[in-house]
């Protein structure tokens, strides 16, 4: 698959996780930046709320095409069944970026 197409697919799937994001302008900048696929994978993996072992597995994969496949699989596992606030695997999907804490 063309890496530009895969990059766009990753970003759109990631956007589906956070449809009401307050980071619309930042997201648009990343979409338009035309970053290399490996950089996009690293940024999205860092932003996902997944376990450290899953993040480590993504970072250890040297083949960027395979890493992007693994990342899309992870994103699709996290996608809510119905609506952005659905319970997914015992976790509530939250907004990205996280809201400011008063703590």
Describe the structure.
- With 103 residues, the chain is mostly helical.
- Helices cover 58% and strands 4% of the residues.
- It contains 5 helices and 2 strands.
- A two-stranded antiparallel ribbon has the order 1-2.
- Strand 1 (87-88) and strand 2 (91-92) form a beta hairpin.
- The protein is globular.
Query: Structural class of the helices, strands and pairings?
Result: mainly alpha
* End-to-end C-alpha gap: 45 Å
Radius of gyration: 14 Å
Question: What is the typical, i.e. mean, pLDDT?
Answer: 75
Major sheet characteristics: 2 strands, antiparallel
Instruction: Give the CA-based shape.
Output: globular
Write the layout of secondary structure elements.
Layout: H1 3-17, H2 24-33, H3 37-47, H4 52-60, H5 64-78, E1 87-88, E2 91-92
Antiparallel strand pairs: 1-2
Helix pairs in contact: 1-3, 1-5, 3-5
Question: How would you summarize what this structure contains?
Answer:
The chain is mainly α and about 100 residues long. The protein has helices at about 5-15, 25-35, 35-45, 50-60, 65-80; strands at about 85-90, 90.
Key attributes of the depicted protein:
103 residues, mainly alpha, 4% strand, single chain, 2 strands, two-stranded antiparallel ribbon, 5 helices, globular
């Amino acid at each position: 698959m063309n890496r530009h197409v895969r990059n766009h697919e990753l970003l759109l799937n990631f956007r589906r996780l956070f449809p009401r994001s307050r980071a619309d302008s930042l997201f648009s900048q990343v979409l338009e930046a035309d970053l290399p696929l490996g950089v996009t994978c690293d940024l999205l993996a860092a932003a996902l709320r997944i376990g450290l072992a899953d993040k480590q597995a993504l970072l250890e994969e040297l083949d960027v095409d395979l890493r992007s496949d693994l990342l899309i699989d992870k994103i699709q596992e996290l996608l809510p069944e119905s609506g952005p606030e659905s319970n997914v695997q015992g976790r509530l999907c939250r907004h990205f970026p996280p809201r400011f804490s008063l703590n």
